[in-house]
Amino acid sequence: MSKVVILLSSLVASVAFAAGGGGHGSPVDLIPPFLNFAVLFGFLGYKLTPVFRKHFTSKHKEVKETAERAQTLKHEAEMKLEQQEKKNQTLSKTIEEIKTQAQKEIEKYKAEKAKENEERIAKLKEDAESKIEMQKHEYITALNSELVDLIVSKAKSTVKSEGGLKSNVESKLMQGLK
Asked: 113 falls in which pLDDT band (50, 70, 90)?
């Protein structure tokens, strides 16, 4: 780049010096600077064209590769985004299914516990009734035993207090033993 600047400045200087001579030049005076200019830029073009071509070709390749990488990365990013969106949709569906399943399990658990409690209450009632019946039977048996004991003791006292009954009872007991 600095070479180009030096060449341009030397060209401008040569044109400026060529125009000297009082400023009364003719158009023919411009032919040597024009030829000088044409030769210089032709030579520069000839020498710099491959360099510029190589530079721009390499830049073109870099830009093309960068664009291709960017396109590839864009495509990958779009695929990842699409996969993530699918996962999110699947996740939402899964969450709803889990909630539904949990609600069903809660209802099932409540029903099982209610049934279990009803069965337990029925069993407790049955046990209480049988216990009450057993205690009632024990009390009746105890009362009957006391009643028999009371009747026997009353009969003994009555038999003892009346002499005629005593002999009559003894004779009947003896007959019953034979």
From this structure: very high
